[in-house]
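call fold(seq) -> tokens
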Amino acid sequence: AALAKEAGAKLEGLPALIAGLHTLGPRTAPLPAASYHVTVCDVMCQYPLGLDDAAWTELMLAPAFRSVADVVSRAAFTPRLRVKEVMVRPGGALGLILEGIDAEGAEAAEVAAPAAAAAENKQAATSPASPAACPKHGPKAAALTKEVEGLLRAREGGVSRYTHLAGCKSHPWHMTLSYSCRPEEKHGGGAWGALDPAAVEEDRAKVEAFVRGALAESAALAVGPAALCRFEDMCSFVPW
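ret:
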């Protein structure tokens, strides 16, 4: 689900801010604001599957993807999300962590039930009854995600042999702001472990303050409806 143009315009200065950060700036590659998006279901990527270009092109012609594109288009699922925090991953990648709010602006059903009734309400909590419901903690429990995963795993779709890497992972709602450009630091190696945690936190706080200031007037982050997209890199997403 792409960030709406009006929200993207408010964040246009964010990539430059990230690039200029004292500690994180030299080790992270900010994405352009025009590419900001929220992943509803991360389907699959070519290289983890070990496919060459010819095999990947053939896979993309599988009927399952046309079925998924049609289902997603008809659903017009538009996540309602609000800012929770900015997160820094080892290596310097920055992400905006979000949380879902339902169509009425209240907490999603998975956290609305009292703790004493948690077990009784587990089914409703993990599988929202309404197709439009936006689970609080991530897209894994969204009705559309479950439908998409079912289509990908169907034998007649032509991609079931790849579904060990297909489907939405258990990530929180998030919007990636930058990627680490130092592979040796991505798991805490290299010079990452020697950085001053206070300096890293200072940079993180600057990014979060910018985002909160830019979006202060918005109760929910403005994103468009979900769409099945293909992409050559993380800077451009082309609807199916």
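Residues 103-129 have pLDDT under 50 and may be disordered.
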